[in-house]
Amino acid sequence: MIKKTGHAPGNVKLARIMPPILFAVLALCLSSCIKSSSDKDAGNIEISDIAVSDSVIANQLIERSESFFKEAGAKSEELDAFLLEALDLAERRNLIRQEISIYNTVGKRFRNRSQYGEALKYHHRALKLAQSINDAALLADIYNQIGVVYRRIDDNSLALDMHFKALKLAEEVNDTFNISVSMNSIGNVNFNLERYHTAIEYLLRSMHLSEVTRNETGLAINHNNIGECLLRLGQADSALVHFFTSLEYNTKTGNRMGQSICYNSIGAAYIAKGEYDVAESYLERALEINRTMSDLMQVAMSLGKIGELHLITGNNEEALSYLTESFEIASSIGSRFQAEESARLLSSFFENKGNYKRSLEYFKIATQFKDSILNEKNMNHLNTIGAMMEVEAQRDRIQQLNEETLQQQEVLIRQRLMLFIVIIALVVIVATASVLVFRHRLRAKYADLRHQHKLLRSQLNPHFIFNALSAIQVYVLEHDTEKSTRFLTDFAKLMRMVLKLSHYDYILLRDEQEILRYYLSLQQLRFMTPFDYDLVIDPALDFNSVLVPPMITQPFVENAVEHGIMDLHEKGVLNIRFKKVNTQMIIEIEDNGIGINNSMQMKSEKPRSHESMATKLTKERLEVIRNDSGGKVGLEVIDKKDVNPFDHGTLVRIILPLVSQDSVKNASHG
Predict the structure, then answer these.
(1) What's the whole-model pTM score?
(2) Could you report the per-residue pLDDT of 324-352, keeping only the tens digit for each?
(3) DSSP string of 612-655?
(4) Widest CA span of the chain, in angstroms?
(5) How many CB atoms are closer than 10 A to CB 413?
(6) Pick from 75, 109, 134: which residue ends a domain?
């Protein structure tokens, strides 16, 4: 059994946001089932026997798709053959409700696989069709689905907007079920925003409607969510009342997942009360259910909660056993959230034991998982924004086409005389040619600026910034004031120079040299065995007057460090040379790393990184320089082993026309 210690219950972090989210998912699944059923009933009483027969076939295809999707799991496609056949039938027979059901189904599948941009595309298609038939109940359901997508990407303001729209429509037609779902969703958004009193108000209203409609699943969900809010407000006893009530409903309906969630919530409440033995018994029950259901993600979460409880109470051996198993399971199934949490707790465990080496190892693992989660979240957010912009662009194009059609009709009506028609045609041709020429000139003028902006965004890899901040944190934890102060100073100087010089077409060679020195000094501090570098400028090049495109060498210097020297089992050496040859400047970046061929082979086994894009943008940028100056440009990347089998490393050679301050007016002089 667990013994009580002096740890304050307020410091316990076992209570997470997962229970209300899982209950919300159950509510939405129930919503889609009921709405699908109502759609079928509506289709059966619409029009002729042929239409009824077609709608029944379409519904059967949708049901077969759902069964196949559940059986196939991750291998199944979102828009499978059954749905494609049903969609073709629905489009040919004008079965709008079946089309809406198909698009909503595909949207939910993309959402559950975290492809939120694609999910929004299909939900918006369903929304457009529902608007065409002005079905308030369908619109309310679709707005709730869209709101869930925004809630998943933490865009709570848009999520609230969607759920309030759904609530208003549902209230207009007295759709009790969608009113309840909307209020529950609004409560969950307020829970995420830590507005717990407001969340409780909406959850109570949703629970009242569930009581009226005798929706026991809805009652279980709302009671648990209200309990979570009360627990966050420090009212553990009141929270327990709702948790036990939710458990009764889940037991009555045979919902094993719901029971597991309730046991975890009850355990968290007893932890808040400081009754650790009781908390352990309920957390163990949740673990037992999860093991029975073979839900490895839930098993990993339960193990993590119990391990953290043992860590709090000083049961170190038990804590290590549970946390290690949780980390191993989470890592094996790719659950990065739980893997990051377990690694963080293991780091704390080894820190308390005085094993700082193991603590640092798990801290780095936790940081890697956290960075991966953050990157995926950012990509999901960008994909969602892209989908929204695409939908808006489609609407604008349709509106623009309609306006152009009306204008053409008006022009045709006014064209009475052939001479007038010819004059108008000439005017249109001249105007079009002028616009095309003007647009061509604008594109040429701003092409270089776009390439520079793209290249700047690709320069300082977010992973470098994350690694730099992590390195600073390590130095602070190790009380290495000198290194952390030096790292912060160089990092600030580098950021300031990049922001200062990035908007110029050319900068002084002296500034390019200074940027590289700051960047490489930061990279050296990150290595346990620092590499050596040498930066040589040809005496024939006056670095106070010769100009270069800003940060032209940085992507290749970063590639040399991150993908050449970092994987080397000996001390790395990096040489950067600026040479003058006739009217050209040649820049060489040479390292003794593993070589470009080995690096590309290693990267082919991983997702494509930003370096290949940086190389592509550099080539495009050199092409713009060649067009502007008329001089020779070039980019060569050579694996030194291809030249000498006994050598290793990479040589990058950049050829640029020699430019001075007199030939470029808007270069940097500072």
Answers:
(1) 0.46
(2) 888 888 788 666 777 888 888 888 888 88
(3) HHHHHHHHHHHHHHHHHH----EEEEEEHHHH-TT---EEEEEE
(4) 100
(5) 8
(6) 134
